[in-house]
Amino acid sequence: SLSEELITRAKSQLISRLSSGEKLIDSLIKSEVVQKKTTPPAGSEAKEVKMELSLKITAYSFKEDDLQALSQKIVVDPPAGFSSNQNQTSVIIEKAELDKTGFIKAKGKINAYFLPTLDLDTVQSHLSAKSKDQAVDYLSTVPFVGGVRLYDDFPLFFLNGRMPFMKKNITVKIIPTIL
User: Fold this and answer.
1) pTM
2) In terms of Cα–Cα distance, which of 128, 86, 134 is closest to 111?
3) 157-161 mean pLDDT
């Protein structure tokens, strides 16, 4: 229908005018017919009918950064032995409605991810000068380590398949995975 086409076009224009990091709240996009005119008038016979329709579109948007900041205040403290992974925390608005007083009530979903806090200095110390098999065996005993990948950034012939002797030359990266 003409009104659906106009709403879709208006929504596209609104989205193009949003600032970076802003999003429309789809469930709060409202349309109201302001003017509707058909030529010739309804009930008359004609080969062509021309319809003019004017809509008033009301929409609300939010800044994703503001929602992210709010979510950081809401997220519970991580369990013992874990820290919050801010880069993977996401917020989704599932339902939003406008009440009679003009306030927006929204229901959201926060997905927070936590990473294990490891004593990297101790891990590096245990890995120094170990064979790769010994390193994998040790890492499999470290709580919350679910997998291991060893890389030789600068393989040296005299290490003969061993980890570097100096712990400062060992880099440990924690890579989060979603189960």
Assistant:
1) 0.56
2) 86
3) 62
